[in-house]
Amino acid sequence: MQGLRLVTGVAIVLIAALAIRGSANLRKPIVDDTELFLNFLRNDVLPERYRGPEYFKKIGKTIKVQAFSFKNCGGDFAGLTKLQVIPDPLKLPGNINVSAVGYIMEALDSPLQASLLIHKKAAGIWVKIPCIGDFGSCDYDDFCQILDMAPDCPQPIKTSGLGCQCPFKQGNYSIPNINMYGSFGFPTGDYNLTGTLHYQGKYVACLEVILTIAS
């Protein structure tokens, strides 16, 4: 379940921050590879679910992103059995509803090491978004410190008994209907987010999410 906090919470914050960067003046001169890459990210990409067979024939790919999906990709102590994000595709700015069911097999506390990888799909290839100013595909020495800086904890998470700050207790958790509003815009396209957690040398959890942002 901590994987939910990592991917749905931090990823939304990361996307928001990149959106703010994306709202900067596009006429600013490109002074290095970082600015060049950010310009690439600011471009809208038509999600694959809306493309016809000729596109996939042209790029030589047959597998496409068709819907929101998630999977546990490793770890021994935490995971999700359900993760639902509505709407699919996401439309930003706009309302987002998240529901999840998961488990923690051992209590987790600070320091909780976390890593987040974010990729955007272009021409059938997943392109990694680098870590720029602590946003993007970054490593975090203690994710608990990031959670301490988060705004008010959503009531469904409080009610579940999980809470939003460390420590996290062992148990099974069901969190229905986390409603939030994404007030930021973000370039359309297909995104892959993978979050991992380590605690006291143990590989706690890994969660991979594929989602689409559309206009």
UniProtKB/TrEMBL annotation:
Which GO cellular component terms, listed alphabetically, does the Swiss-Prot or TrEMBL entry include?
A: cytoplasmic side of plasma membrane
Residues of the MD-2-related lipid-recognition domain: 70-211
| Protein keywords | Signal
Under SUPFAM superfamilies, the record lists:
Ganglioside M2 (gm2) activator
InterPro entries listed in its UniProt record? GM2-AP (IPR028996), GM2-AP_sf (IPR036846), ML_dom (IPR003172)
Does the keyword NAD belong to this entry?
no
**Which superkingdom heads the taxonomic lineage of this protein's source?**
Eukaryota
> What is one GO biological process annotated to this record?
ganglioside catabolic process
Please provide, alphabetically and separated by semicolons, the GO molecular function terms listed in this UniProt record.
enzyme activator activity; lipid transporter activity
UniProt-recorded name of the protein: MD-2-related lipid-recognition domain-containing protein
Source species: Magallana gigas (Pacific oyster)
Please name the taxonomic classification of the source: Eukaryota, Metazoa, Spiralia, Lophotrochozoa, Mollusca
